[in-house]
Amino acid sequence: MSEISYVVKYDLNPTVEEAYKVLRANVQFCESSRKIRTIAITSYSPGEGKSTTSINLGISMAKAGMRVLYVDADIRKPMPFKYFMSSNLKGLTNYILGQAKLEEIINKTDISGFNFITCGIKTNNPVELITSDKFSNLIRELEKLYDTVIIDTPPLGSVIDAAVIAAQVDGTIIVIETNAVKCQNALRMKEQLVKANANILGAVLNKISKSEYKNYYGSYDYYNSRKKYIKMWSRLIKNLKSLKRGEHD
């Protein structure tokens, strides 16, 4: 493992951070007889937020005391290092091609318990790499080292890679951008995962507006209404005290 500790760009407001805690809890609720250690995350099209969801979910799990590894498996279009200020160019493809050892591609971050593997060099045969025995063996090896391995996969509406990876992991999460994906496309994506015998854990509705978020969860808003309820109870207590004084008079 690299001795350098890379800085992760992580700055969420309390509401968003709470949403990832809920997602983390829901993943844990999906566990029955078998613990979910490896998770593939995909979407229908690019730009829906699957990488952001993958990383933030991983960080949320790490903050809860888990050992988490994020793997960028979008070999066709590697994610730019916008989240990780990494100088290590060796990654997943380098390992599968025999150009790097496992300890050379795992990178530490400034967040305790959260590590990552970048995509590595771009190749012309991504499907051959992810269907290889070396990729399958890598997943099994990482299961021994981490509590959870989150694999960021390419959009399923464009290529088949996500379904291939989903067939090899414990669970799959679908990220859907609000008002951006047609229902029939979302259903087509689900059908493709079912054909691959993927264990679909659920879907994340992403990029939802603040007003829609409040409507979805109802009128109860812990962060914004706490002061309002404190004031309400203060007035109620004062009124009760006034009534008691009136009775004594």
From TrEMBL:
<keyword id="KW-0067">ATP-binding</keyword>
<protein>
    <recommendedName>
        <fullName>non-specific protein-tyrosine kinase</fullName>
        <ecNumber>2.7.10.2</ecNumber>
    </recommendedName>
</protein>
<dbReference type="Pfam" id="PF13614">
    <property type="entry name" value="AAA_31"/>
</dbReference>
<dbReference type="InterPro" id="IPR027417">
    <property type="entry name" value="P-loop_NTPase"/>
</dbReference>
<dbReference type="InterPro" id="IPR005702">
    <property type="entry name" value="Wzc-like_C"/>
</dbReference>
<comment type="similarity">
    <text>Belongs to the CpsD/CapB family.</text>
</comment>
<keyword id="KW-0808">Transferase</keyword>
<dbReference type="GO" id="GO:0005886">
    <property type="term" value="C:plasma membrane"/>
</dbReference>
<dbReference type="InterPro" id="IPR025669">
    <property type="entry name" value="AAA_dom"/>
</dbReference>
<dbReference type="InterPro" id="IPR050445">
    <property type="entry name" value="Bact_polysacc_biosynth/exp"/>
</dbReference>
<dbReference type="GO" id="GO:0005524">
    <property type="term" value="F:ATP binding"/>
</dbReference>
<dbReference type="GO" id="GO:0004715">
    <property type="term" value="F:non-membrane spanning protein tyrosine kinase activity"/>
</dbReference>
<keyword id="KW-0418">Kinase</keyword>
<keyword id="KW-0547">Nucleotide-binding</keyword>
<keyword id="KW-0829">Tyrosine-protein kinase</keyword>
<feature type="domain" description="AAA">
    <location>
        <begin position="37"/>
        <end position="184"/>
    </location>
</feature>
